[in-house]
Amino acid sequence: MKLGRFWKLLMLLIVSCIFLVGLAWQASRFADLDSEARTLETAQETWIAENRKIEAEIALLSSRERTTKMAAKLGLKRALPEERLRIQFTASKGASHD
What we know:
Layout: H1 2-61, H2 64-73
């Protein structure tokens, strides 16, 4: 009877050890994934900040005021309606519109 009890305790000990090893592996895996997630979140924040800077630069560079000032510096002026030339293209008989 005591021998059967010994084997039951031994099996319980072995199963417990296997369970603890699996638990340690899962904890290690979780820590690795958490670290990777933090790294990706930091990279995402950096990309978002950089994107905002680029969008602000685009808005600044494409503003009408900037374009007008640059044209004035270059000596350019807005063309008057009578100075504009309109060209209309018509399709020739053999041309296709694909």
